[in-house]
User: Fold these one by one.
Assistant:
Number 1:
Amino acid sequence: MKKSAIAAAMILAVISSTGAFAEAATGTIASIDKKGDSITLSDGKTFVLPEGIEAETLKVGEKVVVTYSTKAGKLAASSIKPAK
């Protein structure tokens, strides 16, 4: 029983430290890579776009809020909305 409790605690610690929590960034779109399905904001952060968000719907110069998480060392956008 004691070993399984220790194992469960270790698994929980690893899961909570992986950075799977969504973050948000606000900025102006500096460039759009339609072939690579990504955008770069004026601060230099590049976000990979998910299925369902088409690069063609975005415009350079548009101010946006990007909700994202880090996956395999890349910033993966989950939503992009116009900034107010």
Number 2:
Amino acid sequence: MFIFGNFLVALAKVIDVILTIYLWIVIISAVISWVNPDPYNPIVRFLRRMTEPILSRIRRLLPVTGMGVDFSPVVLILIIYFLQWFLVKSLIQLAVRI
């Protein structure tokens, strides 16, 4: 059973790293959106391709319209933190108990 426990710890750490990398992608994308970036720049296109599918879903759920401020990156960052605190730590605690 210790092999399954080690697998869960490794899985939790991989998920944590992926969520951290995605967190930075969201932050960089939000900061770049404050200026008028070149939409044909490969970095800007990559950032938009990585963040826009999730941010557009969050925008549809937010009741804020017409304010001119996009709070969807903040909501996504909070979701990422929640997943890191809840999911990753729960997986590690489950692995320790096994």
Number 3:
Amino acid sequence: MDVLFCAKYAGYYYDPGAWGRALADLVPGLRLIVWPGPQDPAKIEMVIADWAPPGLFASLPNLRCVLYPGYGPDALVASGEVPAHVTLARLEDDGIARQMTEYVVLYVLHRHRAAEAYAAQQRVAHWGLIETPATDATTVGFMGLGRLGSAFAAALRPFGFRLAAWTRSPRQADGIAMFHGDEGLRAFLGGADYVVATLPSTSATRDLMDARRFGWLKPGAVFMNLGRGDLVVTDDLITALDSGRLGGAVLDVHRPSPLPVESPLWRHPKVTMTPHSSGAKMTDAIPEVARICRLVANRQLLPRVIDRARGY
């Protein structure tokens, strides 16, 4: 089976050579072709893509599956480029989830234990004890409780944090205070000391965190976004930080992206930013990609097929 690998971020997230060698070993008969080729369009049955040039999918007459190598295929869905008869699936890999869990635990504990404040004291050679609240008096809330949010909650639970989550529809989860819908969002935001967002980009989530919702946050809360930059109205986030409503922000995604050098977020004293690197080691995903390739080659049902109406 010929598989076309069309990656906008090859060399940053992906090593095409390593992917090709590993997949060839794991899936006998698979030939990975890195876009733009050379390729025989009639032989390509699957495309692995985080991006594609206009018209690519329509030019592949025997295409059966497009796999987005990550958690958020919203750009591919929004483009309308993937034909209706072609299965669009996303990758939910344990390795990526583990990396993102490390990231969340790192920055929650970093803020909770006042690491930045102690670092500032070290620079001026003067110590002062900073009291931090007990974990059982501190709530970490998750916007979304899918595979990622559940992994974050499981990792933070042993530290004794209170846990909460907000979802679009009603759910139950052991040991987690659950909120849902528009009415539940205000109560959720008002009770969390840390808000961790991993929401996809959809018509329901774009601009969700605006001035009104930031005003619902508990004073001094820390907002963390690992999902999509367009969840946030950036100017409203900056206003919330400057006013003191927000105690800080940890941003692995940005709006716009790439972030202009003149953006005040680069230099804001309350902001920690990373370059969409919370789950960047994509070599961890190769075994799961290989499993999906075998399913496609054998014409079997795929996990995590995208609901195009919902956008994820």
Number 4:
Amino acid sequence: MESINQLTYRLSAKAATGIARLRALMAEESGQGTTEYAILVGILVVIAIVAITAFRGKVQELWDAITNGFDGLQVES
């Protein structure tokens, strides 16, 4: 059976190894760019939703004009 000192030493060594790995992961910056792009895309989506909501009437007029233009086309056979 291990003594308390041996057990304490093994646990300390494992804790030190875990802390070293955690520090290495925190220093790594490869995921940082992905996060920045995700935030940017999120902001752009919010801006698009706000713009569409603010200009709802104009967007509806434009959509109606497009659909009327397609309806006015005749297919020749």
